[in-house]
Amino acid sequence: MKMNADTVMDAISAADMGSMPDRSVLEAISRMPGVAIERFAAADDPDHFGVEGGGVVVRGLTHVRSEFNGRDAFSADSGRGLGFQDISPELMGSVEVFKNQTADMIEGGIAGTVNLNTRKAFDADGRVFSFSADVTYTDLREETAPTFSVLYSDIWATDVGRFGFLANFSHSEIKVESNGVQAGKYEQQEWDNSKYVPQSARLSKKQDDKERDGFATSLQWENTAKTIVLTGEFIRSQATLAWNENAIEMDDGDSKVNLKPVDGTSFDFDDNGTFENGIITSEAGWRGDGSPQRYGMQHTMVTRVRNEESIVNDYSFNAKFTPNDSLAINFDVQYIYATMAIEDVSVMGATRAVVGMDLRGSGLPKISLLHPAYDGQADHTPGTPFTDPSTNFWRSAMDHISDNEGEEFATRLDIEYTFDNSIVKSIELGARYSNRQQTTRQSTYNWGVLSEAWADHNIWYADTDVPYDEVSFDNFARGGVLNTEGGNTFLFPSLSMVQNYSGLNDALAGAKAVAWGWNPLADRDDATGHFVGNEINVTQEESTAFYAKLNFEGDFSGMDYSANIGLRYVRLDNTTDGFISYPDDVPKNDKDIANVLNAEQAAFGNNASIVTQSIGQYTKVLPSVNFKLNLTDELLVRFAFSEAIALPSLGNLRNYVSIGGADQRVTFDPNVPEGDEPVPIYAEYERYTASSGNPLLKPMESYNYDLSLEWYFAEAGSLTSTLFYKDISNYFVNGFTYNDYTNNGVTQEVEVAGATNGGKGTIAGFEVSYQQFFDALPGAFSGLGVQLNYTHINEDGSPNSGLNNSSSDSDEAGDIAFTDLPLQGLSEQNANAALLYEKFGISARIAYNWRSDYLLTTRDVITKLPIYNTANGQLDASIFWDVSDNWKIGMQGTNLNNNITETEMQVNQQGDKVTRSWFTNDRRYSLVVKATF
Questions:
Q1: Where are the domains of the chain?
Q2: CB 3.0–4.6 Å: which of 141, 432, 605, 667 could bond 412 by disulfide?
Q3: How far lies 765's CA from each of 702, 705, 762, 823, 831, in Å?
Q4: 357 and 262 Cβ atoms separated by less than 8 Å
Q5: Parallel, antiparallel, or unpaired for β 297-321 and 228-251?
Q6: Is the pTM value of this prediction over 0.70?
């Protein structure tokens, strides 16, 4: 496929995917040159490891277009593309990754286009029946899960032509676990400003249950003259991910600079004054609850449950008409409907502990949780303080809901006329129209207190019948990491209670100390279901495109060449419905100052939401040139140039402005006696700020250049190298503007932060790929082979976006702490190495996938700092044996090197980093049976 392609691309076949233990298309394409994947559930959530990954990067850019069979494919999230981690590889006939463009390709692939080709009946010469089944054991979770797939395809010859039918179904389950250790932001200490101590720590135990159901079917007909081929297809992908987490979070709240070693101990620091080892306690109680230092620090005990379901239904019809050798007509129509639903619920308890942290060395850290009276200044009763319900209280709860759907109708017409005996081989003309509408409903993360010392009083586990669980952290991170006084067992809010979201409010009734604390999203004022008006956005996008493409072929000095040159005209029309939300200055409890707020500001902040609609348009002509020269029958050189665009995410196109007051100034009554509650008499905001989307955001634009040298010296042997360069403008970045808004008769100036276009940058690099079987070796050694690829990428000047596609909360996409950061998601180096064996009915692979360190997110939601994924690699292997012509059995292993994923946080402008996280996940072992008839 690569050798004969019209532009620069790589491809992987169904046979190649089946030979490796890849559970999703995402894992399969990570073995291609220039392609890397994220190992976290989302790049902006580096606290939650995702075993199967959650995003694809091509040549350092995340703006990747996704397709099914050359047509649009998308998930109903806030992004543009498909969740490749949700697609079963068993449905694929091949996967193509295009790294440059031709005029007939649909626009949007500034980084690249990933095209998933499903199988069709006419791909085979006759009847095919095949199935596969496996069971996978995960050693950290210590559970098994099944996967199976079945395919039936047949062709019938009749008097009216040839008919073909194919049906392919795949069901996959996986049960995995990841354990995480995290250190919080390092703060300068008041008692010695040359010393830096982590202000928090986190231990997490996360279990993922993922199921994928994929179904693809096609019906084909070809007339007897072989001039007409009709194809109808239906593809359905349904993926569910249910994960739960128990996390222990040390957080000393507002005491940012008052952490000290327990009496009689001391901290160890490195040469830069950074904490390495010690037993940490707080100088004062947490947020004024009166607890003395000797009772340790508050630790939040989190039970979190998240359920995700993504469904994609793709219907298509294609007609190909070739009335003669010169004319070919292609007509295509598609309808795609996608939904995505997320239910994310957390309930938090709390207890107190003294924490010992040993971060020395290069391996996993060692954490000790000790009795809160560890220093001996209070009664210290040996035993199990962390499983005592009288030492744990109900602290808080949080819920978040998403409910999205998107649909698209698309049609295209392509005509190709071929010339005889001409340097111009053919001319292609085409037109395409699509209409996509997407509704996103995304609630805020609705945190609220249950009980706290500052919220009336604590409600202890022992004083109520609200259910809780004893959870064991034995064998945490495979042992040797956690050492807890009294054993590694802790009390957490009941998992079954948190899983029952509809009954959660009633279940927590006995844990609520105040009425104004947590209440479910649906109980909010003006909520319809789980959402208020400004959490619902409707976007409609029409795309109209026309293209012309000339194909050339000929002979130059005895060397064959082929080329194409084309222009593609694109017009995009967007209509977005949304809201302007004004501040809510209505008091929710008697401590609010709204009753004494400046009169104009009080009128402005009446919690109003105003419906708005925005209309935008964008047009562009995109040129492309591709040239291939066959230096010999085996050696060719290829040049490619194109101008490409990347469409903004639908999350950043949302039409909303959410305004809030900032920098509040309060004057108190000076006549209130000392010691009494202060009484505010006047208040005002110094300024107003807002977060916003940008329905007028323009696409990113790039000039893409490729130059490759490709040597195909054997049927399964090749050595290729590619130089590439991208000149990019119109990046999507977080920007600020000052706008006047009028509400309730009052006009205020507002500092608005949101998505805008800005900045330029370049990306340059090279790829090298080599594959060969050494069949000249003697005997059994002739089955040996290797696959190697390496990518090196340099970036210059590209700005980071600072945007969050999935949240409208202003805090989620705030200022980036430091300048001159590398481009998010870009690893300077990516590599794959595989040892192959094919002989005597044995097919074996040992493969290693590696990428260098890269910026995971510019602003972690917890530390507010840039987070980097350190360099890491994963070792996988498989072996299959052909029992007969029809049957084969095999074994597969994933993460055989027990890869520990580490992240680092940048702590200053100079670029110094300290370790933020260590994540351990399962090794996976599968027993596989396959049959083909």
A1: 136-438+463-505
A2: 432
A3: 15, 11, 10, 14, 13
A4: no
A5: antiparallel
A6: yes
